[in-house]
Amino acid sequence: MIIDEGQLELIADGLAEHGFAVVDDFLSQEEMIALRNCLLRLKNEGHFKKAGIGKQSSLQIREDIRGDYIHWLERDTPHVPIQGYMNRLEELSSYLNRSLYLGLKDFEIHFAYYPEGTFYQKHSDRFKQTDHRIISVVLYLNTDWQEGYGGQLVLYPEQQSEVKITPIAGRLACFRSEILHEVLAATHERQSVTGWLVNKPVGLGL
Ligand code: OGA
Ligand code: MN
Fold first, then answer.
1. Quick check: helix, strand or coil at residue 64?
2. Per the CB 3.0–4.6 Å rule, which of 109, 131, 134, 187 could disulfide with 195?
3. Quick one: which atom of ligand 1 is closest to the CA of 194?
4. Is residue 205 predicted with pLDDT exceeding 80?
């Protein structure tokens, strides 16, 4: 097992009881920095593109809705820190299958960065074209992030008050993908690995 057992339990309990969970230090400091360095390198090499709304043919760029840039990560990535993170997502999925019977089969992940001042308006990650997304999983990579920078993830679970999550490095936010949420604008660039645990194998034209 790579993930701390206590963290796995916290995530499963949070998802079962509230529909979300937040754990800190999901990666060691060294692993987090290595993953962050991968993001910075891929960004410097020009691999990111502006994120859109909708899928494939209906994809549109709408800066009034979301202003982030993304780079999808493939299973055969040569980057060891990314492989390590993927191994953790696999372990998390099988734990959630055993404890919550979620029927998770695969995951999809991308690096994301939000330039200063950009945001992602209130939305759900699960709609007609993405109904295979069961759990959203976001790992933040923002070293030295201050509360006053903004950039919180705000969750709007039904029948509960909203929850604001500060995107500090090493923090993992997990939530049921149908929960409405938004990303607030920040005064500094905001970086993450964003992913979804899905109930169908990906790469089959989903
Ligand atoms: C998303 C998203 C949340 C975050 O990419 O769909 O909602 O905190 N991200 O970055
Ligand atoms: Mn989302």
1. coil
2. 109
3. 5
4. no
Q: Answer yes or no: is the C-beta of 172 below 6 A from any ligand 1 atom.
A: no
Question: Ligand 1 atom 6: the closest Cα is on which residue?
Answer: 125
CA gap 8, 111 in Å, rounded: 23
Paired tokens of 80 = 């060891």
**Three-state DSSP state, 137:** strand
Which residues touch 167 (CB under 8 Å, ≥6 apart)? 138, 140, 142, 145, 151, 152, 153, 190, 192
**AA letter at 119:** F
Q: How far is CA 50 from CA 16, 53, 204, in A?
A: 34, 10, 23
C-alpha–C-alpha distance, residues 32 and 139, integer Å: 9
Q: From the CB of 153, is ligand 1 less than 6 Å away? A: yes
What is the per-residue pLDDT across 90-134, written as a single tens digit (0 to 9) for each? 999 999 999 999 999 999 999 999 999 999 999 999 988 789 999
Model confidence over 38-92: pLDDT tens digits? Answer: 999 999 999 999 998 877 667 788 888 999 999 999 999 999 999 999 999 999 9
Task: Give the global pTM.
Answer: 0.96
